[in-house]
Amino acid sequence: MGGKGRLVIVSNRLPVKIEGHPGKWKVTHSSGGLVSALTPVLRDRGGIWIGWAGTTEVLDLKTLREILGPASKQAGYRIYPVRLSREDVDSFYHGFSNEVIWPLFHDLQTRCRFEPEYWKSYRKVNGDFAKAIKKHTRPEDYVWVHDYQMVPVARLLRSSGVQRNCVFFLHIPFPPPDIFLKLPWREEFLKDFLEYDFVGFQTMRDRRNFTDCLKALLPDSRVTGRGPVATVTAGERRVRVAAMPISIDYRSFRDTAKSAKVNRILKELKSQVPWENIAIGVDRLDYTKGIPQRIRAFGEACRSFPELRGKIALIQIVVPSREDVPAYQELREEIEKLVSSVNGEFSTPGWIPIHYMHKSVSREELAAYYRLADIALVTPLKDGMNLVAKEYCACQVDDNGVLILSEFAGAAAQMHRSAILVNSYDIQGMADAIHEAVQMPLEKRKSRMRRLRAGIRRQNVFWWVDNYLRASTGKALVDFPEASMAPLFHALMKRAPEASTK
Ligand code: GDG
Questions:
Q1: By three-state DSSP, how is residue 9 classified?
Q2: What positions carry a catalytic annotation?
Q3: Which residues pair with 165 in a beta bridge?
Q4: Residue owning the nearest CA to atom 39 of ligand 1
Q5: Across the chain, what does the average pLDDT equal?
Q6: Domain shared by 274 and 317, yes or no
Q7: pLDDT for 418-469, tens place per residue?
Q8: Which of 99, 267, 398, 453 could hold 113 in an S-S bridge, CB 3.0 to 4.6 Å?
Q9: Which residues of the chain fall below pLDDT 50?
């Protein structure tokens, strides 16, 4: 790593997306965990973000840059778009990424469609990303590639004769061998990971699954070292593999939650949903998030514990996602049927058990909902991390809330001691957990929430990126004299004393 290297983030989606039509282009923020986690980091330190702007309209690069220019200026870092055609989006994005890797890596292999065309398109689009990296970066830059849509980038870059410091982070879980081995292109895909200098996973479980797959498919590979960072040797490749749980900008969520604007929204919400116990669910529309199971569990809680009726409400926010994929449309219909069935069974004049919203809310509204909720239901069937669990806690400025957390979320590895852990497939178990949360004495709620918040405050997103940089480059942040590093360094310094105070 040279001292002049810039941070280059590469991900399928840019943090902004282009919508509209010629003459009326609109640039909006994209949502999702990766963007939520990385935006504060680049905003603080500058750098480059390379990705797709979410439109398949045939726009030349000059026009694309013109549309994105103001957003890039405002963001404080450079945004370089990669163009994708409609066919690319169908086969690479909806196809290989979301109908093969996404379900397979969330242990839902029966949802996979192993189409050979998808694989070809996946590699072609990754080749396009490799070309963009070649064009916009310098040899001393630090290229940080993100997530399952972009695995072959390092190999394709290398095979085109370009040398870069390339590291990778997988935001989703890595499956165990009995599931991974079903992938028709398993060996090549696994070898793609080994083309990076450093590969980060969310949890030790994911890293172990990865090294178990290596042992199964590449018997001459060796894993050495214990602790969060180990070394894999396979043929001529030596790659460090690590468990590095992602986090949130704790301070920003906490401050938003305390702001006058959020207090105003909260006051209004309290008058609209006056029940003693409010539970909240916030998820992208996705079958991995366990939304139908959660709604059934909430109905079961109303059935099994009649004393809850009239006293508890669930607010379920479902953010539209992958709307043109039939499986997601079916999921939406399933959720809406379940909501109306529970509401039909239990509503009384003046009380509706489930308040369902299929829309995205502003960050302030989100913080107000988090504050309003006495209980968070974070119950994915499987999740790399789940940032909602951490955001909910950061916004509990009165230390009041109870977190009900799926044992299959990566977040459980860090939060299991002070959350109520559930098996998100166990409807009765989740209903019992809701009852337990309602009954939990205030002091117990507070001491658990304080512990959860202290953990996230310490291990926030800046801690994550600092750790990642140290582990992947072998240098501390202060060893990078590049000016663009300074803002992050200052951000870290500002945050350091806070860890010991509140
Ligand atoms: C992937 C992995 C991993 C949601 N609704 C609204 C809104 N959101 C924001 C949340 C949160 C983000 O979206 C969702 O993050 P998750 O972590 O829950 O999930 P994925 O999108 O699936 O992300 C996941 C993550 O990457 C990071 O590594 O944790 O496991 O699957 O930040 O707040 N934000 C606003 N309005 C909404 O309506 N403003």
A1: strand
A2: 171, 383
A3: 142
A4: 363
A5: 90
A6: yes
A7: 999 999 999 999 999 999 999 999 999 999 999 999 999 999 988 888 888 8
A8: 99
A9: 1-2, 480-490, 492-502
The first and second tokens of residue 491, run together, are 């951000």
CA nearest to 36, candidates 386, 274, 321: 386
pLDDT score, position 33: 64
Same domain, 236 and 258: no
Do 213 and 290 lie in a common domain?
Answer: no
C-alpha dihedral sign at 343, 346, 349, 353: negative
Q: Are strands 312-319 and 198-201 parallel, antiparallel or unpaired?
A: unpaired
Task: State how many domains the chain has.
Answer: 2
pLDDT recorded at residue 490? 47
- Tell whether pTM > 0.85: yes
Q: Is 146 in the pocket of ligand 1 (CB under 6 A)?
A: no
Task: Supply the pLDDT for residue 502.
Answer: 29
Residue 474, domain CATH: 3.40.50.2000
Q: How far is the CA of 33 from the centre of ligand 1 (A)?
A: 3
Q: Does 267 share its domain with 181?
A: no
pLDDT of residue 2: 42
Closest CA to 34 of 480, 464, 488, 489: 464
For 481, other C-beta atoms within 10 Å of its C-beta total 10
Q: Calculate the alpha carbon distances from 90 to 57, 126, 293 in Å.
A: 14, 14, 29
- Ligand 1 nearest atom to the CA of residue 387, by list position: 17
Q: Is 285 in the pocket of ligand 1 (CB under 6 A)?
A: no
Q: What is the pLDDT of residue 67?
A: 87
Q: Cβ distance 390 to 298 under 8 Å?
A: no
Q: Per-residue DSSP letters for 283-350?
A: EES-GGG-HHHHHHHHHHHHHH-GGGTTTEEEEEEEE--STTSHHHHHHHHHHHHHHHHHHHHH-BTT
The Å distance, Cα 310 to ligand 1 centre, comes to: 31
Give yes or no: residues 373 and 444 share one domain: yes
Residue for token digits 């105070």? 501
